[in-house]
């Protein structure tokens, strides 16, 4: 490869390096990606959000939803939930809790419908207050 | 080279030594990073053997001109494997190591023209990364009223150590009084000193990146960036990223100062490994 060709490739690589954070920022705004990751150099630009997982199970007769107590699900489930939380923090809404939902249906056989609620606790940039955003995902047998 | 040439310099006599020292420090940093990861894996696993012995073999090859480029390419490849395996939680330091090593492996550096191309490219990489660390703070909007610092001051000891002297005791009480739950806030400061510092951070990052590229202001920008890095490390303790960035920053001066700092980098990374092995006491940093 000639030096002129290499120079062109280097120039193209630098353009990508310079423009990629703009695309990442658009994904932060739209999908909820964390600014801290993905080579966009946004570490320490926002307080880190915390992700939590709550499982609700619907009473088959009344349809009323109750929180599934932590001890009702095995430790492996909560280990998987912790891993999900880290990945959800990074990937935002691109990371769905579908695998967790299926697991819960396996662990609680009588349940016809369960809901995995993903909570994101974050500092709002307009109010500077700690706020929570909850996204429910429903799963049926 | 057009726009690329803005980052060039008249560093002919020192260019080769400077680039060699950079290669060695970068390889050392990748190795230390991979060893640190391998220590978290089961000692008998294939991945652990590959990371430990593979990276060591490649590091040993780096001082030899004949194998250097391929050794750096091998280290870049191992770093790519790590990025793929740890995605999406990969730290930005892994990406930066990979970008620098990939660029070095792509440019042969046997001829003067290629050596210059590599140095110019590496300087641009450092400047772009530095510029974006500031621009991200501006775009995300947590630095105008000291929001970011107020939040971390209330939650992390090492941020508090330095920043608590910039705010009034009443404000410190207010921030420390939050129960770390939904409804806390507002995380805004009323202290002119903290607000000034907060805004100075993103202004400095973006401004110094530009001044590093401009040849006339480059040396002053290198010194100011070093001061800025020391202050940042006191609060954020991003030591690993800081060391990688410092290796890149040392490509900006005309002289090959980085050659004299090789033992310092080696000692720093040895300290990291010994700490991970439990030989030295653990110190919390990012």
Characterise this structure.
The complex is a heterodimer of chains A (141) and B (286). Chain A has 3 helices and 4 strands. By secondary structure, chain A is α+β, with helices and mostly antiparallel strands. Chain A has a 4-stranded antiparallel beta sheet with strand order 2-1-3-4. The mean pLDDT of chain A is 94. Helices cover 71% and strands 0% of the residues of chain B. By secondary structure, chain B is mainly alpha-helical. Chain B has 12 helices and no strands. The model of chain B has no long low-confidence stretch (mean pLDDT 91). In chain B, helix 9 packs across helix 10. Classes of the chains: A alpha+beta (141), B mainly alpha (286). At the A-B interface, helix 1, helix 2 and strand 4 of A face helix 4, helix 5 and helix 6 of B.
Task: Write out key terms for the chains shown.
heterodimer; A: 141 residues; alpha+beta; four-stranded antiparallel beta sheet; 3 helices; 4 strands; B: 286 residues; mainly alpha; 12 helices; globular
Query: Overall pLDDT of chain A, averaged?
Result: 94
Tell me, rounded to a whole number, the average pLDDT of chain B: 91
Please identify the structural class of chain B as seen in this structure. mainly alpha
In what range is the share of β-strand residues of chain A?
15-25%
Task: Write the element-wise H/E pattern of chain B from the N-terminal end onward.
Answer: HHHHHHHHHHHH
Report the helical percentage of chain A. 25-40%
The best one-word shape of chain B is globular
Radius of gyration of chain A: 21 Å
- Helical content band of chain B: over 70%
- The shape of chain A, in one word, is elongated
Number of strands of chain A: 4
Tally of helical segments of chain B: 12
Q: H/E order of the elements of chain A? A: HEEHHEE
Largest sheet descriptor of chain A: 4 strands, antiparallel
> pLDDT under 50 segments of chain B (min length 5)?
none
Amount of beta strand of chain B: under 5%
């Amino acid at each position: 490869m000639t030096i002129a060709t290499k120079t062109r490739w280097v120039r193209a690589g630098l353009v990508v390096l310079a423009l990629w954070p703009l695309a990442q920022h658009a994904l932060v705004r739209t999908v909820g990606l964390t600014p801290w990751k993905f080579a966009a150099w946004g570490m320490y630009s926002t307080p880190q959000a915390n992700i939590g997982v709550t499982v609700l199970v619907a009473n088959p007769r009344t349809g009323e939803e109750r929180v599934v107590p932590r001890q009702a699900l095995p430790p492996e489930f909560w280990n998987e939930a912790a891993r999900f939380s880290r990945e959800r923090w990074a990937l935002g809404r691109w990371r769905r809790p579908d695998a967790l939902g299926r697991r819960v249906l396996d662990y609680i056989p009588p349940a016809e419908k369960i809901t995995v609620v993903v909570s994101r606790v974050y500092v709002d940039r307009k109010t500077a207050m700690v706020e929570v955003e909850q996204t429910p995902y429903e799963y049926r047998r | 080279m057009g726009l690329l040439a803005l980052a060039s310099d008249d560093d002919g006599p020192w260019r080769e030594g400077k680039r060699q020292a950079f290669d060695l420090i970068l390889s050392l940093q990748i190795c230390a990073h991979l060893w640190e990861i391998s220590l978290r894996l089961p000692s008998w696993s294939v991945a652990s053997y590959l990371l430990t012995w593979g990276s060591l073999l490649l590091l040993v090859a780096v001082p030899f001109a004949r194998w250097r480029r391929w050794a750096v390419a091998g280290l870049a490849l191992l770093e790519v494997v790590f990025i793929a395996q740890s995605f999406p939680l990969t730290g930005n330091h892994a990406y930066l190591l990979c970008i620098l090593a990939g660029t070095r492996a792509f440019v042969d550096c046997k001829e003067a023209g290629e050596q210059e191309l590599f140095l110019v490219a590496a300087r641009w990489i450092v400047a772009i990364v530095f510029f974006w660390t500031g621009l991200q703070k501006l775009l995300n909007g947590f630095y105008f009223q000291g929001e970011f610092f107020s939040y971390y001051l209330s939650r992390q000891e090492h941020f508090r150590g330095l920043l608590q002297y910039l705010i009034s005791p009443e404000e410190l009480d207010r921030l420390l009084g939050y129960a770390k739950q939904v409804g806390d806030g507002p995380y805004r400061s009323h202290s002119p000193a903290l607000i000034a510092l907060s805004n100075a951070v993103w202004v400095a990052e973006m401004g110094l990146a530009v001044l590093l590229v401009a040849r006339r202001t480059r040396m002053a920008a290198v010194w100011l960036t070093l001061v800025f890095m020391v202050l940042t490390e006191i609060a954020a303790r991003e030591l690993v990223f800081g060391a990688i960035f410092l290796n890149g920053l040392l490509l900006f001066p005309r002289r090959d100062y980085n050659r004299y700092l090789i033992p310092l980098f080696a000692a720093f990374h040895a300290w990291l490994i010994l700490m991970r092995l439990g030989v030295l006491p653990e110190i919390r940093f990012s």
